[in-house]
């Protein structure tokens, strides 16, 4: 019969995507990690993953199904540990939180600080990625909870804040003379788009108005984007929260559109999250609202 240790090692290998790094995280040697995964596959009688030199570790179909169940088991064990600790007067545990970069930078420092002050034995493990990656991490149970754009019919959500979009221009751009920008104003401009946000939704705004959309560059980092705007390589459409505390705020103007980014906390089931995650949710509500 497969052991809890084997299941946990397999889950960690897939989470990190590398046997050696998983071994480092688990304080095990790479051969020991590899042997544990091989033993699990032998015990189950199926191949769980494929080692591909160019693409890394790839889950088989049955591997994906089993991984989801393993993470459900891990979450249940975490709930048991935290409930027992709470019975003894302790609040402990690790919370895996996913977010996209601008929201993480805006909210998480003060949230983590509040958690540490109130619950010093609770730790937070942060995963940052695109909106799509965050959604996939939540649905695959790789994380306990995440910040997403709402609505999402397949997830339980807690609405947090509504964020409007701004046009961010290079210095001395002629449109900075306007206090309110229309999509038509931007239809002939070169746009710099961030991978972490929701570029398809932005493009759809132009399509719905019958306007041309000129995406010139795609970048992965907000600071890179802002630097490119400063160098007059293009302009961008960004959420207010992403740029409000940056030097580029003085070059931002509101856009005349009803489109908003609704940020929410999300989990597969808010009813069944761990005790530590429930405490995290309470802190988020206090700090964000």
From TrEMBL:
Query: Is Transcription regulation found in the keyword set?
Result: yes
For this protein, the record's InterPro entries field holds: HTH-type_LysR_regulators, LysR_HTH_N, LysR_subst-bd, WH-like_DNA-bd_sf, WH_DNA-bd_sf
Q: What is a single cellular component term in the Gene Ontology annotation?
A: cytosol
Q: Which UniProt keywords apply?
A: DNA-binding, Transcription, Transcription regulation
Q: Which residues form the signal peptide?
A: none
Q: Where is the HTH lysR-type domain?
A: 1-60
Pfam families per UniProt: HTH_1 (PF00126), LysR_substrate (PF03466)
Molecular function (GO) terms for this protein are: DNA binding; DNA-binding transcription factor activity
Record PANTHER family: HTH-TYPE TRANSCRIPTIONAL REGULATOR CZCR, HTH-TYPE TRANSCRIPTIONAL REGULATOR YBHD
Say which family it is in: Belongs to the LysR transcriptional regulatory family.
Task: Supply the name of the protein.
Answer: LysR family transcriptional regulator
Source organism = Oceanobacillus profundus
């Amino acid at each position: 019969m497969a052991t809890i240790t084997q299941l946990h090692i397999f889950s960690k290998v897939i989470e990190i995507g590398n046997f050696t790094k998983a071994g480092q995280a688990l304080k095990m040697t790479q051969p020991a990690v590899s042997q544990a995964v091989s033993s699990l596959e032998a015990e189950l009688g199926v191949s769980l993953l494929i080692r591909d030199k160019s693409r890394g570790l790839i889950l088989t179909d049955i591997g994906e199904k089993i991984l989801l169940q393993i993470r459900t088991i891990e979450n249940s064990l975490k709930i048991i540990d935290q409930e027992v600790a709470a019975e003894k007067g302790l609040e402990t545990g690790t919370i895996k939180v996913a977010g996209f970069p601008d929201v993480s930078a805006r909210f998480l420092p003060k949230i983590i600080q509040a958690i540490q002050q109130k619950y010093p034995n609770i730790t937070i493990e942060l995963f940052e990625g695109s909106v799509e990656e965050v959604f996939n991490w939540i649905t695959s149970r790789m994380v306990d909870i995440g910040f997403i754009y709402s609505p999402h019919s397949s997830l339980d959500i807690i609405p947090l804040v509504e964020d409007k979009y701004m046009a961010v221009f290079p210095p001395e751009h002629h449109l900075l003379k306007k206090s309110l920008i229309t999509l038509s104003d931007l239809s002939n401009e070169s746009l710099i788009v961030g991978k972490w946000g929701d570029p398809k939704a932005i493009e759809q705004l132009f399509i719905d108005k019958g306007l041309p959309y000129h995406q010139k560059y795609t970048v992965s980092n907000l600071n890179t984007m802002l630097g490119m705007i400063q160098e007059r390589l293009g302009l961008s459409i960004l959420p207010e929260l992403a740029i409000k505390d940056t030097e580029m705020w003085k070059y931002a103007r509101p856009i005349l559109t009803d489109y908003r980014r609704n940020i929410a906390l999300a989990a597969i089931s808010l009813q069944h999250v761990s005790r530590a995650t429930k405490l995290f949710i309470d802190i988020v509500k206090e700090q964000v609202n």
